[in-house]
Amino acid sequence: MLDDENGNRVRLYNVQGGVISPSGELLYIVADGIHVFDLSTGRRVARSTNGSGIFNYEFDADCTPPFDSECEEPEGLTIWDLDDGRAPGIRGQLHVLLLDNDIADDVYLKHYTGTIHVDRSFIGLPLGTPSHPFPFVTLANNLAWDGARIKIKAGSYPETLTISKRVQVVATGGSVTIGK
């Protein structure tokens, strides 16, 4: 049985696929969006949004007959770490198929990362991405979900925080000091 974030049973409709993370800890399911469950508890730890947000899986769900030209169906998904650059222009670990269900049947691949980036020297709009990292570890920690990875650029981060989710914290480019 699978539960939502509050412990209530989840009923999933239009299930099109699922995959278990390489660690065996998380189950990703495509069913009218993307749902992520902690396999040890059966509880949902993340759910995609449709149209905005950091975990945005946007699609037009109006597929009732007669189909209009905007009808889109979430399809399968896979986990494949492409953050090492071996697929030029593609990053992320979670890759999800979206079918534009009309006469042309266009197919789109959407890519998601489990990594939140931090760089104290960044100036600009902080999004937690490689090109727009958060300047503070606290911001990354506030966004993090169970199973996320926080990748921190070398340096000193004079802040205090408590990490209460199952996350992996990785230093890149040297040592990281938090709290001094």
Structural commentary:
The chain is mainly beta and 180 residues long. It folds into two domains: 15-112, no CATH class; 115-178, no CATH class. 4% of the residues lie in helices and 38% in strands. It has one helix and ten strands; from the N terminus they run ββββββββαββ. The protein has one helix at residues 137-143, and strands spanning 15-20, 26-31, 34-38, 43-47, 72-79, 94-100, 106-112, 115-118, 149-157, 168-178. It has a four-stranded antiparallel sheet with strand order 1-2-3-4, with no helix packed on it. A three-stranded antiparallel sheet has the order 5-6-7, with no helix packed on it. Strands 8-9-10 form a three-stranded parallel sheet. The radius of gyration is 18 Å and the shape is globular. The relative contact order is 0.12. The model has no long low-confidence stretch (mean pLDDT 87).
SSE ordering:
EEEEEEEEHEE
Q: Give the terminus-to-terminus CA distance.
A: 45 Å
Number of domains: 2
- Biggest β-sheet description: 4 strands, antiparallel
What is the total tally of β strands?
Answer: 10
- Strand share of the residues? 35-45%
Structural class: mainly beta
